[in-house]
Amino acid sequence: DAEDGRRIFVTLTSAGARALEASPDPLQQSFQERFERLENWEQASIIASLERVASLLKAENIDAGPVLDIGALNEPPKSVD
Fold first, then answer.
1. Quick check: 25 and 66 in contact, CB under 8 A?
2. pLDDT tens, position by position, 50-68
3. How far apart are CA 78 and CA 34, in angstroms?
4. Terminus-to-terminus CA distance in the chain, angstroms?
5. Residue extents of the structural domains in the chain
6. Does the pTM of the predicted model rise above 0.70?
7. Concatenated DSSP letters for 32-73?
8. Which long-range contacts (CB under 8 A, 24 or more apart) does 73-81 make?
């Protein structure tokens, strides 16, 4: 930033975007590793319970993938007066 030398803008390259897209979410990866170590009956019980909760919420057909929205990455932040 020409006005404030303490601020630096970074840009995500296409190679970085591909690497980010391919990398697992740390929380998701940790959950998956721990879930896979459970006994089959325990995995089935958890899945059945979560399916029942989704049914009670009428959310069976909602795409509930992990979402992180931090805004556009290609625009510098707006200044606050």
1. yes
2. 889 988 988 777 776 655 5
3. 41
4. 17
5. 27-59
6. no
7. HHHHHTS-HHHHHHHHHHHHHHHHHTT-TT-----------S
8. 73/12, 74/11, 76/1, 76/9
